[in-house]
Write a structure and sequence with these properties.
This protein is an alpha/beta fold. It has five domains: about 150 residues, HUPs (Rossmann fold); about 60 residues; about 60 residues, no CATH class; about 55 residues; about 80 residues, Arc Repressor Mutant, subunit A (Orthogonal Bundle). The strands form four sheets. Strands 3-2-1-9-10 form a five-stranded parallel β-sheet. Helix 2 packs across helix 3, helix 12 crosses helix 13 and helix 16 packs across helix 18. It is elongated and about 95 Å long. The relative contact order is 0.08. The model has no long low-confidence stretch (mean pLDDT about 90).
């Protein structure tokens, strides 16, 4: 066993912990299909969202960890439930009134309101695949409609007929009494209206592989369960899909966790072992409320990418997946800076520490070098102090601080400079609140400005930080953080700020003197 494999087998990083469970699962008998199958599901009633990214990213992290400790090949399937009936017309599509007549028809049978694809399901599937391809995920795509209609699901559907009573027994225990009276695991597709029907079964014929039900117009219809004529209710569909494909691993959110035993039992009834699971916690908004697509209280993938890189989002997704985390705009700067801190640390670490480093899992063991010679938080404060309108203004300061840097040699820093300007204007500028200094603070700031005017130490961030410390101590600030709090509130209009010596080095000593003098003159205070 290689050094990497040895270290991975004892790593405490959660992807390796989950991967080892899978290794143990197959230590006696490898999968008959010849590979370990990871699956992630997608409901194409709307566009891909940040939760979709998190689910695929985290599954990929476990997949790569498994590949580091096992020789068994792997596959990842992204399964789209595009045969689900359209329950309501989305509000963000052109001519939504034209879709009203298609309610309850499978999404793959609803016309594409954008006029680009054969169906609304095809449109959203294309958006999903484009989304996944943008981030470089490796996966095989399966459409539920194709899965049902092509016959790939037929054998398991016949088993569902044969095991109908057993599966119904599992399901009925989980339902309210009034729901039990009309429930069936099968949802016929009406041959007349094309709608997905939630109707009870008149009879189920195991020998013939057929079901009998009453159609919308009152006619009794008997139909085979194969060939896309029916679909399964969503809970039975989970377990039956696992059995049909031989799924070995699937993760999902905590809201699914109460149904895990149902999915597993149905999978076993259909003759297949239930897959391994990983249940992750849900995301919260800034008020601690669960994020909901319908209420729009979260942050979208496009919004994150407006202000930061995809890698920083992967870093956020890596952190403590079993702990509920607040996902809102304020977390972005911290995620960016912590991601680059880990990148910088990686080359200096031994193998054990590298395997515990999030960037190993984000980049499959081969992380790039960080070119962020200026932290994102510092870029934000630079944008704030200079009221920068574009990244070109930011580079005027960056070049003085790091002459070797340029947009061409430091593309990550260049992108971050533009992101910082956008973030400043959208989130920082509207909340800036300056205050006047008290007598002690004014005297200290005047002293700091005087010493900076006489400064001949260049852009030495550590030396400048020592100077700022010395001024605070000599003017009796206790604790010293009160001095730095005053600097941030009086000069930057914020309650928190950067390591101020580094800020002076980046912003410039003469510019900082001018900033102090403006603040002391009351130029930043509102009338």
């Amino acid at each position: 066993m290689s050094e990497l494999r040895d270290a991975a087998m004892t790593s405490k990083a959660w992807p390796f912990e989950e991967a080892r469970k899978l290794v143990k699962r197959f230590e006696k008998t490898p999968p008959e299909k010849g590979y370990v199958l990871f699956e992630t599901g997608y409901g194409p009633s709307g566009l891909p969202h940040i939760g979709t990214f998190g689910e695929v990213a985290r599954t990929t992290m476990i997949r790569r960890a498994f590949e580091a400790i096992s020789d068994i090949p792997t596959k990842l399937i992204c399964f789209s439930d595009d045969m689900d009936g359209m329950r309501k017309v989305p509000g963000n599509v052109p001519n939504p009134e034209a879709l009203q007549e298609h309610l309850q028809r499978p999404l793959s049978a609803v016309p594409d309101p954008f006029g680009e694809y054969d169906s609304f399901g095809d449109h959203n599937n294309a958006m999903l695949r484009r989304f996944l391809d943008t981030f470089g995920f490796e996966y095989d795509f399966i459409s539920s409609t194709e899965f049902y209609k092509s016959g790939r699901f037929d054998a398991v559907l016949r088993q569902c007929v044969e095991k109908y009573d057993d599966i119904m027994e599992v399901m009925l225990k989980s339902l309210r009494e009034e729901r039990r009276e009309t429930y069936s695991i099968f949802l016929p597709i009406s041959p007349k209206t094309g709608r997905v029907l939630y109707v009870p079964m008149k009879s189920v014929n195991a020998a013939e592989g057929t079901i009998t039900y009453i159609d919308e117009d009152g006619e009794e219809i008997t139909t085979p369960v194969t060939g896309g004529r029916v679909k399964l209710q969503w809970k039975p569909d989970f377990g039956a899909r696992w059995a049909a494909l031989g799924v070995d691993f699937e993760m999902y959110g905590k809201d699914h966790s109460t149904n895990t035993h149902i999915y597993d039992k149905i999978c076993r009834i259909l003759g297949a072992p239930a897959p391994a699971h990983f249940v992750y916690e849900m995301f919260l908004d800034d008020k601690g409320q669960k994020i909901s697509k319908s209420s729009g209280n979260g942050i979208s993938i496009d919004e994150w990418l407006t202000y930061a890189s995809a890698e920083s989002l992967s870093y956020f997704m890596y952190q403590k997946p079993k702990t509920a985390k607040r996902l809102y705009f304020d977390v972005i700067p911290k995620a960016v800076d912590e991601y680059h801190q880990q990148l910088r640390a990686f080359p200096t670490q031994d193998l054990k520490a590298q395997l515990n480093n999030p960037v190993w899992h984000i980049h499959n063991g081969n992380p790039p070098e960080s070119d962020m010679v200026v932290p994102f938080s510092m870029l934000l404060n630079l944008a704030s102090a200079s009221s920068a309108e574009n990244k070109e203004q930011m580079w005027g300061f960056i070049r003085k601080y790091a002459p070797e840097a340029s947009p061409e040699t430091h593309p990550g820093l260049d992108a971050a400079a533009g992101n910082a300007v956008r973030y400043f204007h959208d989130f920082v500028k509207p909340t800036k609140v300056y205050r006047a200094p008290d007598e002690q603070e004014r005297a200290a700031l005047e002293d700091l400005a005087k010493r900076l005017k006489n400064w001949d130490g260049g852009a030495d961030a550590d030396a400048l930080q020592s100077l700022v410390f010395a001024v605070g101590k000599e003017h009796g600030f206790e604790p010293l953080r009160a001095w730095f709090g005053a600097i941030y509130e009086v000069l930057l209009g914020a309650s928190q700020g950067p390591r101020f010596g580094g800020f002076i080095a980046l912003y410039g000593v003469p510019e900082t003197v001018e900033l102090i003098e403006k603040a002391l003159s009351g130029a930043f205070l509102k009338d």
